[in-house]
Amino acid sequence: MSYHTPVLLKESVDGLNIKPNGIYVDVTFGGGGHSREILKHLKTGKLVAFDQDDDALQNQIHDKRFLFAHHNFRFLKNFLKYYKIDQVDGIIADLGVSSHHFDQPERGFSFRFDGKLDMRMNQQARFSAADILNNYEEAEIAKIFWEYGELQNSRKLAHAIVSGRSGKKLVEIKDLVDLLMPFLPKHAEHKFLAKVFQALRIEVNREIEFLQNMLLQTTDVIKPGGRLVVLTYHSLEDRVVKNFIKTGKFEGEAEKDFYGNFKVPFIAVNRKVIIPGDKEINENNRARSAKLRIAEKV
After folding, report:
1. pLDDT of residue 109
2. Is 204:132 a contact under the CB 8 Å cutoff?
3. Of the residues 28, 67, 175, 263, which has the fewest C-beta atoms closer than 10 A?
4. What does the alpha-carbon distance between residue 224 and residue 20 come to, in Å, rounded to a whole number?
């Protein structure tokens, strides 16, 4: 199954600083691109991979060094405990939605197709984009568009949706796009709709909340000297990761010890964020917004 061309593959796997006998975790398995590359560097080591999507099951790697957890990465600590693993040498997270998801009309991730307003990463989950649009209060919808889509006219959009759904439930992608037509800016329609769909997807999958859950667990799970490698694709995610690496928190300054020194769980390895070069962007357009951050456990 064609899934996803991993972005900054060499740079991100190199960032793990892999030991041949180490234990590593790929918390966003997807098509297995990063996992396969990590296994090339392992001898007696182990790799644990997480993915909640049923489609990812088809990409499992049949290798005695490989363990697969068919769950969201917020269960990181629990499943490592289940596998009798206390600490690991490195964790990699590629937070991009795979090309596979965008290219499947029935999954509802893209406005390029008509299909159901779904957007669930975990297909067993009951809560879809249609549930948000048909059941949330106007103020809640406005908040999602403002916070997760950074849309300036979030209140107007929310009002149009609540007014529109009173006559007919919003079920198909076309239902939503038709409602938003009067708000689409000329020459930037795609960018605008991408922000709307991003906001809904983040809410459906509780992406920011679960990312924060996972990052907080890495402070206990990664050994001193181990690495945390994260690829982000939009400013909201990147801000969460950047703040966490810098302070060990998501807001505010790092805590201080008795002597007034900052206490941080990680130190950034790459002081400046790593981004793809022109060649990679030309070959893979979805790489254009990628940012790679690497940190080492103190």
Report:
1. 65
2. yes
3. 263
4. 17
- Which domains does the chain carry? 9-99+207-297 (3.40.50.150), 109-205 (1.10.150.170)
Q: What is the pTM of this model?
A: 0.92
Local structure of 41: helix, strand or coil: coil
What average pLDDT is seen over the chain? 92
Residue with more model confidence, 263 or 93? 93
Residue 83 phi/psi, 5-degree rounding, is -85, 10
- Read off the pLDDT band of 108 (50, 70, 90): low
| Average pLDDT for 226-251 | 96
Q: Concatenated DSSP letters for 163-193?
A: HHHTTS---BHHHHHHHHGGGPPTT-HHHHH
Compute the distance between CA of residue 62 and CA of residue 238 in angstroms, rounded to an integer. 33
Q: CB of 241 within 8 A of CB of 199?
A: no
b/e per residue 219-237 (b: at least 16 CB within 10 A): eebbeeebbbbbbbbbebb
- Six-digit token pair at 164? 């529109």
* Chain Cα centroid distance, residue 243: 16
